Amino acid sequence: MSDANSGRAPPKRVTIKDVAKAADVSPMTVSNVINGKHQFVSERTRKAVEREIARLNYRVQHSARSLRVARRRSVGMIFVDDAPSFLADHFNAHVVAGLCNVLSAADHTVTVQGIRADHFNQSSIIRNFAVDGFCVVLSGLPDERSAILDSLINLDQPLVLIQEPIASPNEETCIVRQDDAAGGRLLADHLAARRVDSVLVVVPSQNWPAIDQRVAGLREGFQAAGGNVRIDVVQAKTEDFDSARAAVTTYLDHHPLPDAIVGGNDRFAIAAMSILLDRGIPVPDRVKITGFNGFEQRRYARPLVTTVISSAYELGERAGEVLLTRFEKGRFPTRELVLPVYFESGETT
């Protein structure tokens, strides 16, 4: 039954004045917080205003023209990423490229923003986005991602989650991901056929659900193969090359040499291989190396790393396509879209 028929008035839109009253400040102070003019606001006041903005689910009211049109023809792309150089990551860059190319062909713009997980709920950036919908790559443990997802759902906008394995009950949410667990199983099958007994897996300390899925798939694959393979996992402090080298170096200094090293991505695999070659350890005769993603950087290292080819660019394309369908038809064509990955043998196994 509609509000008109039931006699209930439609919900009133929260205004700056409502936020100001709740925070016991002036509307100008709220405006300063929203527009990032923090030099005019004390830290205590800023936090109080941001708390009320989140509690009241306030969103910026844009110009009268923007309010009159049904669509802004713009999408927000958000990476919940602790790394300042998040766009230098090859996976992220491919996703953005695929998304932008699909949306630009349909005369839509894309606004890209990186936000640290621990700053997400305090950030006013998301509430200020003048967009028709969001594409989001989440990081963190499941509970942390769930809390961020709740905040995104409260924005009442169409939402595409990229690389998120946990389904959302919200009907305005669509998941677009690749089958990372299957990729892990492919690597396990390949290494099990080469009779490895011990494997070192190198991953970033930041929790990425896709990396977790790769490691889980690797374990499942070895278990299915019936072998008793010891799997050790080490975390690199950051996602850069030197950090991965440091993590592998520390492990090798205190543990026996593994039969294989699996990088959570190709960068980590190449970093591990560089340590082995520096120490005169032959690859693949003594230690086998595999990576994940298969981006351009893999071609610059020799021997060529065995890897799993990601669908990162296609993930961006599919995310753009399902959003465009949602804008046109009022609903997503599917609640979840899973793209395949492909094994590609190199010279390191």
From TrEMBL:
The keyword Secreted appears for this protein: no
Swiss-Prot/TrEMBL keywords: DNA-binding, Transcription, Transcription regulation
GO molecular function, one term: DNA-binding transcription factor activity
Entry keyword annotation includes Transcription: yes
PROSITE patterns: HTH_LACI_1, HTH_LACI_2
Domain (HTH lacI-type) ranges: 14-69
Protein name per Swiss-Prot or TrEMBL: LacI family DNA-binding transcriptional regulator
Organism name: Kaistia nematophila
Gene3D superfamilies hit by this protein: 3.40.50.2300, lambda repressor-like DNA-binding domains (1.10.260.40)
